[in-house]
Specification:
Blueprint lengths: L1 H27 L5 H4 L5 H22 L5 H24 L6 H32 L1
Helix pairs in contact: 1-3, 3-4, 4-5
Length: 132
């Protein structure tokens, strides 16, 4: 049963990473006229999401190979997203255009990334020490 939960969690995270990669890259590279459809996007937030999606894929590799450094990659991703959120707040304060969706998405992305980082830490570092 533990393995089923583990693989369902990894499957969810894989879908999350691939959706992040698709959405951010389609705005950056203007695939399918997504840039026009997403008016008022904040470019540095999109770039952070793009970079984070590659870090997510690296973390997934670490999950599958049971690497202890997986939680560190996710921690760096969460930190990047938090800094992007602070940058977004500065952008908003200086009168920059934004969507309310951007704030919601960053908060959700930060929460999901942090949960996976904690999960990776306990699964691959903390609990593994008690087993060995």
């Amino acid at each position: 049963m533990k393995r089923v939960f583990y693989y369902i969690t990894l499957g969810f995270f894989l879908v999350f990473a691939l959706i992040s990669l698709y959405l951010s890259s389609s705005i950056i590279f203007d695939w399918f006229e997504m840039r026009e459809a997403q008016r008022d996007y904040v470019l540095f937030v999109v770039w952070v999401n793009f970079i984070a999606s590659f870090l997510y894929l690296g973390a997934l590799y670490g999950f599958f190979r049971y690497k202890k450094w997986t939680w560190k990659i996710l921690g760096v991703s969460a930190l990047m997203i938090f800094v992007a959120f602070l940058g977004l707040l500065i952008h908003i304060d200086s009168g920059g255009e934004f969507k309310l969706e951007t704030i919601r998405a960053l908060v959700l992305r930060f929460f999901i990334t942090t949960v996976f980082a904690v999960f990776a830490y306990f699964k691959l570092v903390k609990w593994r020490k008690t087993i060995n």
